[in-house]
Design brief:
Blueprint lengths: L1 E9 L5 H17 L3 E17 L2 E13 L1 H13 L3 E8 L4 H7 L10 H14 L1
Antiparallel strand pairs: 1-3, 1-4, 2-3
């Protein structure tokens, strides 16, 4: 399975019930296609860079999940058909090096040996 991030923007004047229905649909698609949802964040209402459908503001949502290409196709299809969604974008983050490094376990630094200490001292002296 690949790792994905999706950010979608909803109309700012939606009620809580409407917002819950859109987020529930997104999570339902992920579970139906045997994906795993890790994170769903509400980033709040923010000003848009340019008006979309005569709206200058939008409610941003961040979704982080694992899945396959069929899941992405269905999720984007449902977001595209929903009138409450202004914009959406999905990104594959499986192979991003900074993400992989952040998800790896932090290992303890190696003990400094005499050889590495001598190499560091020699490099410092050469730099001067």
């Amino acid at each position: 399975m690949r790792k994905y991030e999706t950010i979608f923007i909803l109309q700012p004047e939606l009620s809580e019930d409407d917002i819950k229905s859109v987020t529930a649909k997104a999570q339902d698609v992920i579970s139906t296609y045997k994906g795993e949802c890790f994170r769903m964040d509400d980033w709040g209402i923010r000003k848009l860079a340019y008006p979309i459908k005569k709206s200058a503001r939008g409610r941003y949502y961040y979704l982080r999940f694992d899945g396959d290409s069929a899941l992405i196709a269905e999720l984007e299809r449902r977001l595209r058909l929903d009138d409450k969604v202004l914009r959406y974008q999905s990104v594959n983050i499986t192979d991003l090096p900074e993400r992989a490094a952040a998800e790896k376990k932090v290992e303890a630094p190696e003990a400094v040996t005499e050889e590495t200490a001598e190499e560091t001292t020699a490099a410092e002296e050469a730099a001067e």
